[in-house]
Amino acid sequence: MRSPFVYDTRELGRRPGSMREDHLDVPAPAGWELGLVKVPAGAPVVIEARFESVMEGVLVTATAEVPISAECGRCLDPIETSVSVPVQELFAYEPDPEDDEAPTLTGDQLDLEPVVRDAVVLALPLNPLCDPDCEGLCPGCGARLADVEPDHAHDEIDPRWAALALLKDSNAGSDPEEK
User: What is the pTM for the complete model shown?
Assistant: First the structure.
């Protein structure tokens, strides 16, 4: 079965200057993710594209709109948003012997998935935030700082100073005059 990202350029022919605009609405494959952020598998990827026949191949200029699902990097709350990424790639008629990873047409068909995936994954935020002012979680109890009182605090002694606190407690009962 053919991938929904494969586009047939037969109507363009190999006539430089011919152009076609198209709207593609395809489901996102699994694996488009980066740490805390991912494109849910099956989510709609909306691509507005212009296909232009040029001397070397077919130039694709597009915009892909993709929903993303993430966790806030500070408070771990779920985030649902979308990204819009520009895509521009030349699909050559013939393979480039110097660059075996350069996209090429297979017959009259080109596969947009690798170039759209690369553009989307590069546009995903590395540390997504639910709100730019998100304060995160309390290091003592793990409560979300936006949900607790402003004077929320814990009377915990830093473990590095705990030995001094024990020394202070042992000296509390002794008389300072005796020393």
Answer: 0.75
